[in-house]
Amino acid sequence: MLKEQFPIFISQPDLVYLDSAATALKPMSVVDVICDYYENYSANVERGLYPIADKATIAVRNAREDIAGFFGATASQVIFTSGATQSMNLVARSVLMKIASETLENDRGEVLVSLDEHHSSLLPIVAQGQNYGFEVVLNEDGYEALTDMINEKTKLIFVSLASNVIGGERYLDSIIEKAHKFGALVLVDACQAACHMRVDFAELGADYLVFSGHKLYGPTGVGCLLVSDRGYQALRNVDFGGGAVECVSDKLEITSKPGFEGFEPGTLPIAQIIGLAEAVNFLKEAGIDEVFEHEHNLCTYLVQKLSELDFIEFVSDVQEAVHLVSFNVSGVHAHDVAFILGGKGICVRAGQHCTQLLHKKLNITASVRASFGMFNNKEDCDKLVEALKELFQMFNS
Amino acid sequence: MQNVLEHYKNPDNAGVIEDCTHENYSKNVSCGDEVTVYLKVSDNKLVDLKFQARGCAISVAALSMLSDEIIGMSVEDILKVDKDLVLEMLGIDVGPVRLKCALIGLQSVKEALALDVN
Predict the structure, then answer these.
(1) Using an 8 Å Cβ cutoff, are A59 and A92 in contact?
(2) Per DSSP, what are the bridge partners of residue A157?
(3) How many CB pairs below 8 A link A and B?
(4) What top-level class would CATH report for the domain A3-23+287-396?
(5) Which chain B residues in 55-74 lie under 8 Å from chain A, judged by CB atoms?
(6) Among residues A175, A172, A171, A188, which one has the least CA distance to residue A147?
(7) Distance of alpha carbon A126 from its chain centroid, rounded?
(8) If we measure between CA atoms, which residue out of B36, B88, B24 comes closest to residue B60?
C-alpha cells in the first residue's frame, strides 16, 4: 500500500520502518508542496498586498479549511501550534489560569489525568494544576476508570484517544458525557489516533482536541489545537505578539483578536501548515478507514507471529492492538534490541516512550515498540520476526 | 558486536571490593542502566576496580573493557580518559543516542574519584 509514494524507500528500498508512532515518514507530495512554497511564493500571510503574499495567504486559509474538514471541525475551530505538546501546555496554562483568577484559593477544584498518558499530556496538566492550586487527581488504572472519578470538583481532564505504548481503540463517550454533566472540560490527545483512525471532533464532543503534524505524514514544527465554542470560552489569551492583537490602548490595555487569531501570535509556520494540509489530503485520498483496516490487519499478523516466539514478553494485552505492539525480548535490554535491529535496517523504538510512570507500574525499565504506518506490509513484519529470532540466538549462544 | 556481547555475558572485573577506597552508584534514568563501581586507590594509583552493573550490553561491556584498561593507571591519567577511548574499545558505532550508555561507567569512575568515602 503506497510504499512507492514515500521517497525514503527510493533511496533505501530495504528499509523496514516500524516507528510511525514516533514520527511518520513523509510522502513525496508533502515534500513537494513545502519546496514549492519556499521556491515560488515564500511570503508572509495576512499582511502583504502583492501576488505572492496573496498566494501564501490563500494557501494557509485553504489549509485551515482542509485540516478542519478532515477532523469534522470548522476552520474557526483550528488553532495552529508548534505541535501537540505546545497545544496541551497552552490549554493547561490558559484554562487553569482563568479558573484560578475567578475562584478562591481553597476552591479551585480538581484536574484529572491517567498515569499511562504520554508526558506531553500528563505533565502540562500536572504542572499547571500544581502551579494554580488545583488538586491533581491521578488515575492509576485504565482510562475507563476516569468516568467514575469525575465529580462536581473536576475542572479539566486530559485523556488520549489511543495510547503510545498500549495499543488499542479507546471510547471516550462516557467520560466526555459525564465531564460535561459536571461542567468539566475535556482535552483529547489524538496524536496516536489521528493518522490511523477516523477522528471527528464534532462527533466526539470534546472541548479540545490536539495532534502533531509530523505523526500525520506532515512536517515537524506544526500541530493543531481544535477548540469548541465552550472550549474557547474557557481559554484566556496567554501569549501575545504580532497578528494576535486587536488593539493596544494608550494605557497599554491589550485586546486580543477573538477566536483562533488571538492564539496565533507571530508568523505562522507557513510551509509546515501547507505541508500538513497536503498530508491530510494524502490521508483522505488513501482513505482513513482503509488505512485503519490495513494497519489493524498487519498488527494482528505481527502479534500472531510474535506470540509464536516464547522469548517475547508483551507489555500489555495485545489482543486489541490496532497500530502498535510493545514488547520485550527475554533477557535482552530493549535498547540492545532496537540497536541491533537498527543495524539490520529495521527501525523500532526502545525506551520508556515518555511514559515513566507507566513503565514503573509495569515494573519494566524499558520496552520495544513496533508501530505501523500505511506503507508497511507483511514482509516488514516477517523481517522483524526473523531478526528477533537471530537476535535472541546471538544473546543466548 | 561479538566482542561487546562477550564482555556483556562475562564481564571482566565484575564484583565488589569490600575494603574499597572509593564507591559510586550511577543510574541512567531514561533507560534504566545502573552501575556501582568500587575502586581501590593506593599512592595515587588505581590498584583494583570491581563493578556491579545492570543494564544494556553497551553499558556493561564498556565498563568491563574500561576496567581492564584503567587498572594500574594513575588517578590523574584516569581523569584524562575521554569518550574516544571507550568508543575505540567498543569497536562499534554506538550512535549519538547511546553515547550515554557507553559512557555511564567512565562517568561513574570519574565521579567516584572525586568522592572521598572516608
Answers:
(1) no
(2) A112, A186
(3) 37
(4) alpha beta
(5) 55-58
(6) A175
(7) 18
(8) B36
The third-level CATH classification (topology) of the domain covering A29-285 is Aspartate Aminotransferase; domain 2 (3.40.640)
Convert the pLDDT of each residue in A246-294 to its tens digit: 999 999 999 999 999 999 999 999 999 999 999 999 999 999 999 999 9
Of B28, B107, B15, B103, whose CA–CA distance to B58 is shortest? B103
The CA distance from B23 to B39, in Å, is 6
Interface test with B, best of A347, A348, A365, A368 (most B CBs within 10 A): A365
CATH number of the B2-114 domain: 3.90.1010.10
B56 neighbourhood in chain A, CB within 8 Å: 333, 335-336, 339
Task: Tell me how far apart the alpha carbons of residues A169 and A196 are, in angstroms, rounded to a whole number.
Answer: 10
Q: How far is CA B57 from CA A334, A368, B106, in A?
A: 10, 15, 15
Per-residue model confidence as pLDDT tens digits over A198-238: 999 999 999 999 999 999 999 999 999 999 999 999 999 99
ipTM score of the complex?
0.85
